Every structure is written in C-alpha cells, then in structure tokens.
C-alpha cells in the first residue's frame, strides 16, 4: 500500500447493521464521536436518555434497489420511492452475509448474491465518505464493526470491500467491544458482560468475556460464552400495533394493510419511547382511519405483555446465561449489561432489564448508535487496556540495497505511559556541514513482517532521509506503512554543523499517557540537550 499523506486522518466508524447502518466520526475537539448524515440516504431517529428526547441520530436504512437502467437507490431513497417490496430491492443483507447464505437473487434478470449486493451498498457509502474526507483535505481511517461470533470469511469480505473502495487504512472491531467502549464500561481482562440487541427483526443476547491477554491487540477483543436469539423485534411490535389500531377503527381483518398505516404505527412506536401518548393518523397519511386514534405508552406496554414479549426476552437471556454458566460464568459475574438496537429505547424494555440486573449494571443511553460511536472511539485509540495497538518504525535508507526500509522502534502491545525508554538510536552525519536531521515515523500495518533486537545506528542524508548502519533485520516489504508525522515533521538542528560520519545525536524515545511518542535528543558533540520529551507523533 502507498504511504499515507496525512498525519491526522478522519477517523470514521461504520456499523453495517441488518436494518440500519450507522456512521460515526471521532471529533478530537469534543473528545467524543458524532454520527454522520449522508444527504438523501440518511434518516433521523430521536435519541437521548430514557424518556428524554434531546438529540437526533442519523442512520442509513440498510436497503439498496437496483434499477433496470443500472442505477442504485440507497437507504432512505428506497423508502421514499416506495420500493421496499420491489423485486429488485435487497434488504436484511447483513443477516444473510453473516450466515454465509448461498442464495442468489434475481435482480432485473441477472443473478446476484447477497455478498455482491452488500458490496455495492458498502462501496457506495465508502465513496461518499472518501469524498467527504477529500473535501476536508484529509485521508480516511475506517473501522468496521463485525458480529462477535462472525466467521473469518465475513471479516475478510469486509476487508476486500474496503480495499476495492481504495481504503488503505481500515481495521475491524467486534460489536460487543465497540458497544462497551461507547458506554465507557470499565472492564479488565477476564471480565464478562452481556450485549442485548433488540433490533428490527430479532433479539440477540450474547454473554462475552474480555480476552485475558490484551497485550497483543487484535481485531477481536472478546470471546462468546453464551448466545441465544429469538425472532422478536421491531417489525413484530409494528404488526401488533397495526392489528390493535385496525381493531379499534373497525377495519376488517381481510382488508389489506396500507403502507401509510404501517409507517404511522412504526413512527408511533418510536415516539412512545419519549412521549406518553401519540395520535396515529393525525397528519392525514392513513386513509383508512376516519379520525386520528390516541395510543398511549401504557397501552403499548400492555400490548407487548399480551404477546409475551417480556417473558420471551427473559427466556432468551436465560438460554444465553445457561451456556455461560456451563463455562463457569454465573449471572452475578456479569459486570455490565449493554443494550443496543432500536427497540432498546422502549422504556418498558429498559425497566424489565433493570429489575433483573439492577440499575448500575444496565447501560442503555445510546442504543441506536452505541456500536458506531464505540468503534469511532476505538479508531481514536481508546481501548480496554493501555497498550499500543500497532508497530511504529523509523524510515531509513539502506545503502546496500539502495532502497528505503523501516526499523521498528515501538512494538504493538507496548504499555503506555512507558516507564523507561522504548528505543535509543544514534544519528550520524552523512556529509560535511550537515545541519538538519529528520525523524520520519511510520505506522506499520498488520500483514506480517519480522523485527529484530539488534543495536541500531542511523544516519541522515542531505535530503533528511535515514540510513541505517549495521542493520540485521528490517520490516518486510509487504507491510502497509503510514507516515505519521509528514505534516508536522521533527528536525534536529546541529550547531555547529555535523561532520561526515560524526555520531552527532543520541535519541531516546518514550510514550506518554496520551499515546504520544516523545523524543529526547542529546547533541553528542556539545553535550547539550536539544529536545526533552518532545512529541513526535500520536500513536494508536
């Protein structure tokens, strides 16, 4: 991959969901993540703490429609053009992808797999995001979320899609870890927690444990202890509300259900998460209703109870817990219960879980965008443990090979803040009268490579590039490299100028609590300190 061109990329997370896809970007100024809106494709959901409607969240419905002319409609466009049930509309893509479905769809006379449809959907979104970043003069670093139990094939597919879209900086994080990061749950290696995802069509409960060894970070931070699911979610609630409203309005069971009534009932469900009551059909969008019908939150809770909604949630939780118990993890060991999915915003569902687990263990403030926000935090370097997540190297010129190479100075898994030097190097002059010595720092990608432990001397040529003396090992050519301090380079000035082959500067590197790589430099000719704990680049 090519060297990166910006030291401070836009850090963006994509939570590709079965019903909705949420995009979140890290805001350094705020120290938190914000959801992004893609005009025309996104729609908004009300959000906020339980019972408080104080924010809106942008989501992209996970829908794509293929027209006969070869054009695609994405997200909200599909809904607005009433194409949800059209033969060439693809939905529930993630569900089929995670299950490695072999089914092929007939799209305008051509055969298409869910993997192919999902690729078009994601690449369309990535193209928009790349354009957004380019307009800001930035590169993009993308984090994709994956189900905690997803196969390697799913993760590989995500990576292939990203590469085809031209994304050179991307990582994966499991959804459970991302949700926990969003809620700032304090977890240590070996701790267990529960993720309850009540989404559009299903309820999924996972009991997961934080990996015992986080000193070697990877895309998967958690392992599943127990998992259970039920075909129970928002679409079922919508159906029950529709049936209740039709019954009250005296509409016969044999009559067709209009799209307007279905959408009105879906909207009512969302509103009742924040309001005590709602008038269904007040805006005149439901033709079969003679007049608006008042529907209250209490009535919806009674409706859920009559359909055994709450008991089925408890049953699903218990089945997941039974599997965890068989592995030695009892319910009292669950450190946190993290709720995600649109239906988790329903107050009665939240109350049900708080009664079971207690208020302090249930986290539910941001159920719709928690996973995306946590993934954006992960992109910004926030994690469960205080360890550097990548290798970092200094670039040098290998005079024997006549090529630039890289030497690791910080290994992934290095704890921060460091208690002592993480690397010590010496720089020699490469020509008479040399005044400037550059320190180019690179992030090294994940695809292999070898590193050695040999003593190191580096020299800088007249262009500021580094040359290594007595190199025994080096970073493999195939690994991705990203120049971390290109836009904010560090130069050491020799006064008086350095002589040819003079060992002029000794560099000592450390890492502070904010993951900044610090350099202390000593002029070996004068004995003076040139820099002390000078920040060179922010590590991840």
In short:
The chain is of the alpha+beta class.
Core attributes:
540 residues, alpha+beta, Nucleotidyltransferase, domain 5, Substrate Binding Domain Of DNAk, Chain A, domain 1, 3 domains, six-stranded mixed β-sheet, 11 helices, 31 strands
What does this structure look like?
With 540 residues, the chain is α+β, with helices and mostly antiparallel strands. The chain folds into three domains: 10-175 and 372-379, Nucleotidyltransferase, domain 5 (2-Layer Sandwich), CATH 3.30.420.40; 184-364, ATPase, nucleotide binding domain (Nucleotidyltransferase, domain 5), CATH 3.30.420.40; 391-538, Sandwich (Substrate Binding Domain Of DNAk, Chain A, domain 1), CATH 2.60.34. Helix content is 24%, strand content 33%. The chain has eleven helices and 31 strands. The strands form eight sheets. Strands 1, 2, 3, 4, 5, 11 and 12 form a seven-stranded mixed β-sheet that branches. The protein has a six-stranded mixed β-sheet with strand order 26-25-22-29-30-31, with no helix packed on it. Strand 6 (64-66) and strand 7 (72-74) form a beta hairpin. The chain is elongated, with a radius of gyration of 27 Å. Mean pLDDT is 83; it is low at 1-7, 214-220 and 447-475.
Looking at the overall shape, the CATH architecture of the largest domain is 2-Layer Sandwich
CATH C-level of the largest domain: Alpha Beta
**Number of helical stretches of at least 4 residues:** 11
The first-to-last residue Cα distance is: 19 Å
Shape: elongated
Strand content: 25-35%
The number of distinct β-strands equals: 31
